[in-house]
Design goal:
The protein has strands at about 5, 10, 20-25, 30-40, 45-50, 55-60, 65-70, 75-80, 90-100, 100-105, 110. By secondary structure, it is an all-beta fold. A hairpin with a 4-residue loop joins β5 and β6. It is globular, with a radius of gyration of 13 Å.
């Protein structure tokens, strides 16, 4: 059973930098892509950035040029977030999709405020 555990969230001032990490355990196999989503209370969960196992990436328009998604060979997924804005405040979720089903982490909170 694949498990995803996020870390790295916290409080950061506007313009600041934060890096989120996601550890995938349980021997992921047949993975199609991994991604970061974010969600504000009572709002839908939106895709922030994704990366296929082939290395192709996608970024939401709102984060292009500021966020970078990356993955290492040990199934760690990262989201480097630069030039953070108050509107980036959300709960961030790690997502893994393989040929059988999607998996989600529990989320990590990011607050951008002075």
């Amino acid at each position: 059973q694949v498990q995803l555990v996020e870390s790295g969230g916290g409080l950061v001032p506007p313009g600041g930098t934060l890096t989120l990490s996601c550890a995938a355990s349980g021997r992921p196999s047949s993975v199609v892509h991994m991604a970061w989503y974010r969600q504000a209370p009572e709002k839908q969960r939106d895709l922030v950035a994704s990366m296929t196992t082939g290395g192709a990436t996608y970024y939401a328009d709102s984060v292009k040029g500021r966020f970078t998604i990356s993955k290492d060979d040990t199934w760690m997924l990262y989201l480097q977030m630069n030039s953070l804005k108050p509107e980036d405040t959300d709960d961030y979720y790690c997502h893994l999709y393989n040929v059988e089903r999607p998996y989600w982490g529990q989320g990590t909170q990011v607050t951008v405020s002075s």
